[in-house]
Write a structure and sequence with these properties.
With about 325 residues, this protein is an alpha/beta fold. It folds into two domains: about 210 residues, NAD(P)-binding Rossmann-like Domain (Rossmann fold), CATH 3.40.50; about 90 residues, UDP-galactose 4-epimerase, domain 1 (Alpha-Beta Complex). Helix content is about 40%, strand content about 15%. Strands 3-2-1-4-5-6-11 form a seven-stranded parallel sheet, sandwiched between helices. Helix 2 runs parallel beside helix 4, helix 4 runs parallel beside helix 5 and helix 8 crosses helix 10. The longest helix has 24 residues. The radius of gyration is 19 Å and the shape is globular. The termini are far apart. It comes from Microbacterium protaetiae. This is UDP-glucose 4-epimerase. Belongs to the NAD(P)-dependent epimerase/dehydratase family.
Length: about 325
């Protein structure tokens, strides 16, 4: 069975590609490399360089590789930056999703796993988010992911009585961290883990963006989940769709245990052996105080579990980033 992974050359997408291969499924990748890396795509996996906004390219890829389903990861995922770049965010995340749906419909591809986000909830006024918690996104990024879910649900309704009814689920995940393969690491210039790693490697002091939030220590509280667990859940979702098994329209991939940014900083110092006191910088726009979710539904249906401690999350990410640095140094000397 062949599955197309949009954004499969990115940090999360590349882990999903590996998980698909390990499960005996055949992945195909389409990515414009705006934030992904062709080197993240495993050898032997077909790679199509291009944008999901190119409907003809997406449809041709679906047909040529006899794709059974799509795991739609591609998108612009930076919540804070989306506040300054709303038009770009909506083009990539809303129009991009519409084009993927249109290409799937034309090619008769009926299974879709959508990589959504906890950002659809905004700043929830509950201790634990569940799937039907009210949605109040606080950034264009969160809005775009919610609209993407609406588009997919509407297409499911529209095609329900057709020859090719769309079967779908949306996986809302939280702060994805760590590494499940030394060849793949988070290269985002905005995510907490890579920001800290790059600062430590450069001999600089990591920053905390805001310490005046309504939390116990004043820093954001988030649900940190390991990328390998995220990837595994996508594969099970794909298998359930392909097997025509019952599936919910959306799942939270949460840990039920929040960690503050300051607690993450403490783990960083512990694991790396580099002692530091974080520098406090102003808040970033679009960042809520706290968001933590239960993953009970996903545990029931998608074999979802949090298999890594915070130190293991940090260690796996740190080791992958250092391995990449060593590889780059060796390449420059050759």
């Amino acid at each position: 069975m062949t599955w197309l992974v949009t954004g499969g050359a990115g940090y999360i997408g590349a882990h999903i590609v590996r998980a698909l291969g390990a499960a005996g499924l055949e992945p195909v990748v389409i990515d414009d490399l705006s934030s992904g890396h062709e080197g993240f795509v495993p050898a032997g996996v077909p790679f199509v360089r291009g944008t999901i906004l190119d409907r003809e390219l997406v449809e041709r890829t679906l047909r040529e590789h006899h794709v059974e389903g799509v795991i739609h990861v591609a998108g612009f995922k930076y919540a804070g930056v989306s506040v300054q770049r709303p038009l770009h965010t909506y083009a990539q995340n809303v129009e991009g999703t519409r084009v993927v749906l249109e290409a799937m419909d034309a090619a008769g591809v009926t299974n879709l796993v959508f990589s959504s986000s906890a950002a659809v909830y905004g700043t929830p006024h509950v201790d634990l988010v569940v799937e039907d918690t009210e949605k109040h996104p606080t950034s264009p990024y969160g809005q775009s992911k919610l609209i993407g879910e609406w588009l997919i649900a509407d297409q499911g309704v529209a095609t329900a009585g057709s020859e090719h009814p769309l079967r779908h689920t949306s996986l809302r995940y939280f702060n994805v961290v760590g590494s499940g393969d030394a060849a793949v690491y988070d290269t985002s210039p905005h995510n907490l883990f890579p920001l800290v790693f790059e600062a430590l490697l450069a001999g600089k002091t990591p920053k905390i963006f805001g310490d005046d939030y309504a939390t116990e220590d004043g820093t954001n509280v988030r649900d940190y989940v390991h990328v390998a667990d995220i990837a595994a859940a996508h594969v099970v979702a794909a298998q359930r769709l392909a097997g025509a098994q019952p599936i919910e329209p959306a799942y939270n991939l949460g840990s039920q245990n929040g960690l503050s940014v300051r607690e993450i900083m403490d783990a960083m110092a512990r694991v790396t052996g580099i002692d530091f006191t974080p520098e406090i910088s102003p808040r970033r726009p679009g960042d809520p105080d706290r968001i933590v979710a239960t993953g009970e539904l996903a545990a029931r249906d998608l074999d979802w579990a949090n298999r890594y401690s915070v130190d293991e999350m940090v260690r796996s990410g740190w080791e992958a980033r250092r391995a990449a640095g060593h590889a780059q140094a060796d390449s420059s000397r050759s």
